Amino acid sequence: MSNTITIDGQTVPFEEGQTIMDAALAAGVYIPHLCHNPEFTPHGSCKLCTVNVNGRNVASCTMPAVEGQQIANDTAELNAKRLALTQMLFVEGNHFCPFCEKSGNCNLQAVAYHLGMMSPRYNHFYPAREVDATHPDILLDRNRCILCELCVRASRDVDGKEVFGLSGRGIHCKLVVNSASGDLVDTDLAATDKAASVCPTGAIIVKRCGFSVPIGERIFDHKDIGKVQIEAAQREKSHG
Amino acid sequence: MGENKKIRVATCSLAGCFGCHMSLLDIDEKLLTLLELVEFDRSPLTDIKHCGPCDVGLIEGGVCNAENVHVLKEFRKNCKVLVAVGSCAITGGIPAMRNNIGLWECFQEVYQFEGGLEGGQIPNDPELPLPFDKVHPIYEVVNVDYFLPGCPPPAGAIWKFLTDLLAGREPKLEYEMLHYD
Amino acid sequence: MEYFCKKLWVEPGKVSEDGLISVDSTSCTGMCDQGPAALVNGMPLTNLDENCLDLICELIRSKKPVAEWPPMLFEVQDNILRKDALLGAVLEPGAALKATLARGARATLTEMDKANLRGRGGAGFKTASKWSFCHAAIAEEEGHVVCDIGNRAERIMVCNADEGEPGTFKDRVLLNSYADLVFEGMTVGARVVGARRGFLYLRGEYSYLRDKLEGVLQRRRELGLLGKSILGEEGFDFDIEIHLGAGAYICGEESALIESLEGKRGRPRNRPPFPVTHGYLGHPTVVDNVETFACAAKIALHGGEWFAAMGTAQSTGTKLLSISGDCTRRGIYEYPFGVTIRQILKDCGAEDPYAVQVSGPSGTTISWKEFDRKIAFEDLATAGAFMIFKRKRDLFQMARNFSHFFAHESCGFCTPCRVGTTLLQRTMDKIDGGHGTASDLEEMKNLGHLLKTMSHCGLGASAANPVLDTLNKFPGVYEQKLKALAFEPAFDLDGALSTARHITGRDDADAHLGGES
Hints:
- The complex is a heterotrimer of chains A (240), B (181) and C (517).
- Chain A has helices at 20-26, 76-92, 107-114, 150-157, 225-239, and strands spanning 4-7, 10-13, 50-53, 56-59, 70-72, 131-132, 138-141, 164-167, 174-177, 204-206.
- Chain A is of the alpha+beta class and 240 residues long.
- Chain A folds into 2 domains: 4-79 and 224-239, Ubiquitin-like (UB roll), CATH 3.10.20.740; 82-206, Alpha-Beta Plaits (2-Layer Sandwich), CATH 3.30.70.20.
- In chain A, the strands form 3 sheets. A 5-stranded mixed sheet of chain A has the order 2-1-5-3-4, covered by helices on one side.
- In chain A, a hairpin with a 5-residue loop joins strand 6 (131-132) and strand 7 (138-141).
- Chain A starts with a strand and ends with a helix.
- Chain B has one domain: 3-Layer(aba) Sandwich (Rossmann fold), CATH 3.40.50.
- Chain B has helices at residues 19-25, 30-37, 66-78, 86-91, 103-112, 155-166, and strands spanning 7-13, 38-40, 54-60, 63-65, 79-85, 131-136, 146-148.
- The longest helix of chain B has 13 residues, at 66-78.
- Chain C has 4 domains: 2-74, Glutaredoxin, CATH 3.40.30.10; 81-308, NADH-ubiquinone oxidoreductase 51kDa subunit (Rossmann fold); 318-393, Ubiquitin-like (UB roll); 396-479, NADH-ubiquinone oxidoreductase 51kDa subunit, iron-sulphur binding domain (de novo design (two linked rop proteins)).
- In chain C, 38% of the residues lie in helices and 13% in strands.
- In chain C, strand 10 (353-358) and strand 11 (364-367) form a beta hairpin.
- In chain C, helix 15 (415-432) runs antiparallel to helix 16.
- The relative contact order of chain C is 0.11.
- The model of chain C has no long low-confidence stretch (mean pLDDT 93).
- Chains A and C meet through helix 2 of A and helix 14, helix 15 and helix 16 of C.
């Protein structure tokens, strides 16, 4: 029982219970992802992490690693599809990088850089989405939300608060907060909550911190997101 | 065909701030090298009013009114290769922030509320171009051949892009040259 | 809809000013054989013509409660036009159960296996395989320790009566007139699998059947066919609860159905694990279609060989088809698998058939060139929907209607489907508005491929089928709508100036954008 899988010809070991994504990250193999965060239960909604396992496309973040899996990851076809998905996310919301506080530290933007996105390709939706600035310390800008539910998971599983949730079906799906008024200020969300810092885009931002890091010193200014996330995973491994 | 004919380039800014044009000028002394290879047709640099047959068209800014469409279509008709330069041309950019506010509220804010026009009349002279309900990127109005993102794209990215294009190579930007802000 | 709304001074999607009524459209009510149809406060209105609408308008204006409206407005016929092995001989309630108890649970599972019954809800998964993943009862019977999957010994049996696929109404008829057969099948399955609890997940649009179904359940309890010690067998306890859906097509997908059953948003789960090992509240759960359970009951009584002798080798038994559209005899037809489209069209009186949508929007569009194909899992698989289109129908509008359907019904969980179905819908609308080009067609093919290969569930994977099929088999219906140019703007340029024209009061030449330059 050697417990290995093969990703793009490379032998990757895994432990029982790990997903393909877990094993890949631990082995330094980058699979693009947005709704996945190793600190939380896998979600499987963004579909960027889709890989081809023994001929079938599956989301690597939720698919358990099984001995003998032949996986294709870094192929032109998969990367082209990942690019299309990223472009879909860009036109679905209102993602204006030039004035966004998260620019340079944003996972959505960084994945787009990684995939070489030069234009959003599709026609913009320009949806009417609400900004909630009622909370004294936290801004909720739904224009930038990619429905990854990291805030939902963080608030529920780490903070024990259940501040966030998704509501609505299809393209009308949106982030809602757990208060009678629907306003963030009426929830018990605090700036120190995990949910306040886990957002991969600029949808949930702690106030009065924006633009404090100069251009050139932001996370993704000089480093590709693949490198950044692998390094973070390696650090976790050596500490854990 | 031994004659070294210069590449003809036209540029314009539609609903843009001209920041991308400033960035083009930021190539500094390389501008002299560029001018050995390139001739400018319609452009803020030349003040030629209408675009004739050109090889490359660089468009900054998105489409926000009828006049933008006329200019854009003229460029598309006359330029062999059309490039959308900068965030506004590619996503609508800052001007597109008005897309969910509504024209009526915009006009009221500018012309009718405190500090607006005397008499609060909304200008309706036939010479004024009418604005669209929403601001759009240029590729939603005409077919675009290339995109050069940035707000603005750094001078280095513009230089790399132009030199690739002029040399007949497929333009490619390095990781650090590609950004949307 | 237009006629109705005009008469009542109400706009679609809104409540009338006097607060009396609201009108809106919905995806499918399962009344395709007796349309035009509608639902009023959840009750189905059938065969609506102008006279009916006039009458209804009067009733509404006179504020007559729906319960007092003339019953003839609500008549829903079964329209069973061809019976075969399933619908033919009526099962004596309890007969299949007696046979199951006599034979034993393991032997009954063997019969199901021999029968090679495959799911009748569209997916076609082998039923015996599904049931064999939960085999607590067999273990109990043979004296072993009850098979424990992840410390959860309780098994659940769920009947999927969500029937949301437009064009499908066969489960409606089974529930209306063969409910005993269906419940018997569930109970047989419960015996094999060791389930104590069962659910009938009934789509909201069929809530008018609820009272009748509760009546059937109660009668079965009184006959000792449901509840504690069924047919006197000590330890054989099983009961069924009816759970109403709320009008979401996605809840027909088994894991989304389970989510809904648990009171959560209808969203397909990540699989693995599959419902058979981790389903309702984490318990091993079997989800099967109404018709599948009906077949199971008959197999339990007559044996697997009897069933396998019908149909084809890979598609045994018979299939209920719900036939609607351009034909004179709309309704339910039961055929052995392997029947040709041509035969079906002849039997139902199809009028100059041009195309058939087999298995609804998520199925296949076939052209007149393919009428020799067969209804079978190995050829044209179907959950039952069979919509006939005659030569004069606009197949582009059909595909466009379906693209709206999928965008509306997408649960919104995964990126490719949530955004992709909306992109498809918008492109179809763009072409419909006369602004389509060849590059739009190419883009739809790309979107279709993306949806097929990257979606989270079958809805996304099949959402592009109608567009891709019609593009492939009826390209002319698109080409005739295209503009000659290679590119058309994404939006109506002149229309986008209308607000500004209105505000400034201008209508001069420069206030318009039109024609090409």
